[in-house]
Design a protein that fits this description.
mainly alpha, 2 domains, three-stranded antiparallel sheet, 5 helices, elongated
Length: about 130
Amino acid sequence: MTTYCGDTDIVKQARSIFSATLMIRDRMFRVHVENINKQIRKQGFAELSVPQLHMLMTIRKGKDVHVSELANLLGVSPPSVSAMVDRLVEKGIILREHSKKDRRKVVVRVSAAAEKDFAEFDRNAMD
């Protein structure tokens, strides 16, 4: 393979640009995470675990979600989902109801109060 005198300079410049890009990306990510953490504390979500927050985000995407479907989406066992659902129901963050389509099935959804908090969180997360 033939290399030209200018090729090494171009490669060095490309590596330098790539390194600078990675540093900028990492800094932006840290600032974004800091802002999200501030909003989590401000909105009162700080007492929730990461799996609970993940569950809430999943429920919000699907609106009324069956418990078995939620377990599948989260990749955890149905008993684990039921335990997390119980804790979030006790806190008034989600609601557990019988499905309107099939009364034998239970669906969960985010409560109106929690949805309001999430909407504010979403608005403020971009600040």
